[in-house]
Amino acid sequence: MGALDRARRHALAPAVLLAVGVGAVAAGCVGPWGGDRGGVTVDEVALWGPSVGAGDAALIEGRLTVDGGCVYITDGSGVRWLPVFNEDRVAWDGETLRTGDGAFVAGDAISIAGGVLRERVAQDWEPPEDLHVPDTCAPDAVWNGAS
Questions:
Q1: DSSP for 37-103, written as a single string
Q2: Tens of pLDDT along 76-118?
Q3: 15: helix, coil or strand?
Q4: 68 CB contacts (<8 Å, ≥6 apart)?
Q5: Which candidate, 128, 132, 70, 58, places its Cα nearest to that of 97?
Q6: Average pLDDT score, the chain
Q7: Burial readout 69-107 (b: 16 or more C-beta within 10 A, e: otherwise)
Q8: Which residue ranges make up each domain of the chain?
């Protein structure tokens, strides 16, 4: 990943957080995964609350990996990113991850719009109170997915 991509991700992350705080603009909308949580098992996928219509122009690309009961995106440098999704914009059945961008299984190429939430995760990292991170997850970095 080039320095320009990293700089762009860092510059756009505050905009995501600001947009999330502005309020819900898509109330009542239903994505391709249905109106409920799509069977998401919160012990495998990291979740925020419901979406608020915010997004980000940054993009992470890699392979969907599942390790130790946790869903990751592993980039070309081998960094395991924990993608964090809004609970109403993702579905996970233990094998298939469904987002607004499609359906993916382990090993699939995947790209997720969003921004960096945490670039380096220490072993003693405590996620924010409103962020559910499965106990089995040990990411290198955390990605705030907008998909």
A1: -TT--TTTSEEESS--S---SEEEEEEEEEETTEEEEE-TT--EEEEEEEGGG-EE-SSEEEETTEE
A2: 999 999 999 888 889 999 999 999 889 999 999 999 988 888 8
A3: helix
A4: 136, 137, 138
A5: 70
A6: 72
A7: ebbbbbbeeebbbbbbbbbbbbbbeeeebbbbeeebeee
A8: 3-145
